[in-house]
Amino acid sequence: SQTVERTADGAVSVGGLDVRRIAEEFGTPAYVMDETDFRARCRAWRDAFGQDADVFYAGKAFLSRAVVRWLYEEGLNLDVCSGGELATALAAGMPAERIALHGNNKSNDEIHRAVEAGVGRIVLDSFQEIARVAHIAQRLGRRQPVQIRVTVGVEAHTHEFIATAHEDQKFGLGLADGSAAEAVRRVLMLDSLELVGIHSHIGSQIFDMAGFEVSARRVVGLLTQVRDEHGIELPEIDLGGGLGIAYTPEDDPREPHEIAKSLGDIVTRECEAAGLAVPRLSVEPGRAIAGPTAFTLYEVGTLKELEGLRTYVSVDGGMSDNIRTALYDAEYSVALVSRASEAEPMLSRVVGKHCESGDIVVRDAFLPTDLAPGDLLAVPATGAYCRSMASNYNHALRPPVIAVRDGEARTILRRETEEDLLRLDVG
Ligand code: LLP
């Protein structure tokens, strides 16, 4: 969905810029992010959910100050899950009331900074945390708006969901075992906390809306229980993120308006059935906004043809800039972008330069037999969870993020240097 075209001599251009020029100016590997596409996705989510709902972009997918400004300008809110993300959000000028703080083990320092800054909500994840946030807010003389994160008993996988009676994971407070209801009781007793709603996040890279429907139903069930027990109607529901994107042509993602309609309908239906006023809905897409907006640009180095097997195509990055293939067996596609080629396709595996055989970027791909060192390859859909999960393994220098817009490219996150690495090494 990026504005990708072929130039007259067969190279690819993105947002009106020839990838060869981008590589020349900024070097490789590099993440090339289409700002226009990113902003358009923000707007699509904003418009789909309308005035009665809030869209919180999940910063863990990818966060930088420029991205925070885009979010702000396009009317989105921001979900942060660490002090580092909070610092970036505030440094870029995101108003604190548009920030939500998440995490299953927030430190006192993170909580303190968030309350002090005045974040719009803290999503509580454990009994201990209820007490800690209450204590910190009280000390600061604040009444902190909070949501309670519940585990609804839906485990979402890529193409399916399994309803489990018992949740066995570290996040949230269980609905089935009564922990969530107990958390509500405790929060309501604490003056320094203002309980505004219930939060549920069921997983990531999900295509099937059925898991969200079960989640919505169970969250509304808790709201009903809260009304019956305490006589109050909580004003907000957050159904989390997790909407899948297309990594390969087989993936068939839902559009924001379909998602908004489906979630809105189910929440409305369930609330009407329970006699509850429909609460304000929020969602937290990360991947669905950032993922499709960037590709990674690599330069081909060594080629190794293994007779009867495949050709190993080594690029100048690897698992340090995209851990997802090694970690999740994630699938990606790849294309030669610096020139056209009519050569026969060969079965290839695009690998990195790291010292282990699991260092694979694209497991199976067809690339032209005339591929040569110096050619540029692009791996699409790397805007989410690639730069944000990048490492310095083998003292790799994390690649820059280059934003492209109206035929111009600029660095929004610069490439690391060896000096950066040595600066941390104080010994
Ligand atoms: N909200 C909460 C509370 C979350 O934990 C997450 C993701 C999101 C929202 C955003 O989910 P998204 O819309 O991006 O799927 N590293 C993994 C993904 C981990 C997601 C963790 N939580 C990957 O590369 O696939």
TrEMBL record:
Domain Orn/DAP/Arg decarboxylase 2 N-terminal: 37-290
Binding residues for substrate: 287, 324, 328, 356, 385
Keywords of the record: Amino-acid biosynthesis, Decarboxylase, Lyase, Lysine biosynthesis, Pyridoxal phosphate
Pathway(s) it belongs to: Amino-acid biosynthesis; L-lysine biosynthesis via DAP pathway; L-lysine from DL-2,6-diaminopimelate: step 1/1
Domain of life: Bacteria
Binding-site list for pyridoxal 5'-phosphate: 242, 284-287, 385
Enzyme Commission number: 4.1.1.20
InterPro entries cross-referenced by the UniProt entry: Ala_racemase/Decarboxylase_C, DAP_deCOOHase_LysA, De-COase2_CS, De-COase2_N, De-COase2_pyr-phos_BS, Orn/DAP/Arg_de-COase, PLP-binding_barrel
GO-annotated molecular function: diaminopimelate decarboxylase activity
Residue numbers carrying N6-(pyridoxal phosphate)lysine: 60
Catalyzed reactions per annotation: meso-2,6-diaminopimelate + H(+) = L-lysine + CO2
Family, as annotated: Belongs to the Orn/Lys/Arg decarboxylase class-II family. LysA subfamily.
Function: Specifically catalyzes the decarboxylation of meso-diaminopimelate (meso-DAP) to L-lysine.
Protein name, UniProt field: Diaminopimelate decarboxylase
